[in-house]
Design a protein that fits this description.
With 103 residues, this protein is mainly alpha-helical. The protein is 90% helix and 0% strand. It is elongated.
């Protein structure tokens, strides 16, 4: 099950980056290469942040469930570090929007 999830996560990340590459290529063909480069950067920002957060979340969630099975009183600590991992994906999304708003 883990392998299928990772394959799906990587394929969705690559799909997000490739779709931005296609739009960037179109913008460069129209004579506006700066828009193309910005879209490539935005695609990389959200794609790589999502990939890293997804892989980290899988590892952290497995560890959190194991820790909660042994000591239920560590729930708040496990919740805090899972929220920090989710924040990484949100930071990537914010950076991508900041890049795209400029053009």
């Amino acid at each position: 099950m883990k392998k299928k999830f990772r394959v799906a996560l990587i394929s969705f990340t690559l799909l997000a980056m490739v779709s931005n590459f296609a739009v960037a290529a179109y913008a460069q063909a129209e004579g506006r290469p700066e828009i193309g480069y910005a879209l490539i950067g935005a695609g990389l920002a959200i794609g790589l942040a999502g990939l890293g957060a997804g892989l980290g979340m899988g590892t952290a969630a497995a560890a959190a469930v194991g820790a909660l099975a042994e000591k239920p009183e560590v729930f708040s600590k496990t919740l805090i570090y899972i929220v920090f991992i989710e924040a990484i994906a949100i930071y990537g999304l914010v950076v991508a929007f900041m890049i795209m708003i400029r053009f």
